[in-house]
Amino acid sequence: MEEYLASITTDDAACLQLLRMSLPCFTTLCNILQTNYRLQQPLNISIEESVAMFLWICGHNEVQRDVGLRFGHNQETMKRKFSEVLKAIELLAYDYIRTPTSQELQRIPERLQVD
């Protein structure tokens, strides 16, 4: 199964098609999640594999069981790794996504006013 992950994480086109992001973006995301959001790497599953499985589930609307079979992990491992990555993504979202204020929501962008 490591060869399968390597085929995704070394080929930009495969990464884009299967994980829905470019290889540099995927690598940066993995580094940010590990460095800033404490995503841990146990002995048997790399950060890259955990994030790839998460993105595959979300990007293809597949169930954890099917992705687990593809990557060679049981359902309990998939559930645990999905939850770990999801928690890290939630923390990342808190830092990167801001809810607009009511004043901002009331403003109509210029490009929409002329339509």
Automatic annotation (TrEMBL):
InterPro entries: DUF8040 (IPR058353), HARBI1-like (IPR045249). It comes from the Eukaryota. Residues 10-89 form the DUF8040 domain. This is DUF8040 domain-containing protein. It comes from Cardamine amara subsp. amara.
